[in-house]
Design a protein that fits this description.
The complex is a heterodimer. By secondary structure, chain A is mainly beta. Chain A is built from no helices and 13 strands. Chain B is mainly β. Classes of the chains: A mainly beta, B mainly beta. At the A-B interface, strand 4, strand 5, strand 9, strand 11 and strand 12 of A face strand 5 and strand 10 of B.
Chain lengths: 116, 110
């Protein structure tokens, strides 16, 4: 049981390049989300999805796009990378009981992104 | 603006000592979660507190929730080096959003 798988683990981009961070889960959870973690800032929610075809913005959505075509996959796209997007990115899933999470979230191993 | 604040942000303590980490949040949330993160690793769940007055214990860690005060505590008893990590609390304000605190970096000295 793989749980939540993120790829790549590390990435270096040049300013202006685009890339997609991949997140796949085999837990059949409806809810998936992307966070970025920066020193002293905790984890900040970028985008989330409550099911295939449904996405919404979190706290820091600017510069990122998402889509959810299947339950399993929730890719995060950087269209034009900027140094301010240097961060560690985590994908998370959890079952969602109505509007409130009924259990803990399950996290991927993270993607460490550097934009130069 | 929703805020989830933890204090202290950094904590250095001797093995065998007790200490408490505090998590304050600024909006209504019936539930609160505690996570642990080791350096360079992902987050793993410690506790899920689902109602006012909930208390959970696992080993040397005990978490409690007071929804009226919008406060959760994570108490460490007789700390050991293996507890060195960063601890995060998180709340769900009921709008499909899962908001994390700033984290408390704990270092237990032998």
């Amino acid at each position: 049981n793989a749980g939540v798988t993120q790829t790549p683990k590390f990435q270096v981009l040049k300013t202006g390049q685009s890339m997609t961070l991949q997140c796949a889960q085999d837990m059949n959870h409806e809810y998936m989300s992307w966070y970025r973690q920066d020193p002293g800032m905790g984890l900040r929610l970028i985008h989330y999805s409550v099911g295939a075809g449904i996405t919404d913005q979190g706290e820091v959505p600017n510069g990122y796009n998402v889509s959810r075509s299947t339950t399993e996959d929730f890719p995060l796209r950087l269209l034009s990378a900027a140094p301010s997007q240097t961060s560690v990115y985590f994908c998370a899933t959890h079952p969602w009981g109505g509007e409130v999470a009924s259990t803990e979230a399950f996290f991927g191993q993270g993607t460490r992104l550097t934009v130069v | 603006e929703l805020k989830v604040e933890q204090n202290p942000l950094f904590l250095s303590m001797q093995e065998g000592k007790n200490y408490t980490i505090y998590c304050n949040y600024s909006t209504t949330s019936d539930r609160l979660y505690w996570y642990r993160q080791d350096p360079g690793k992902s987050l793993e769940s410690l506790f899920v507190l689902l109602s006012n007055g909930a208390v959970k214990q696992e080993g040397r860690l005990m978490a409690s929730l007071d929804t009226k005060a919008r406060l959760s505590t994570l108490h460490i008893t007789a700390a050991v080096h293996d507890l060195s990590a960063t601890y995060f609390c998180a709340v769900t304000p009921g709008t499909y959003k899962y908001i994390f605190g700033t984290g408390t970096r704990l270092k237990v000295l032998a």
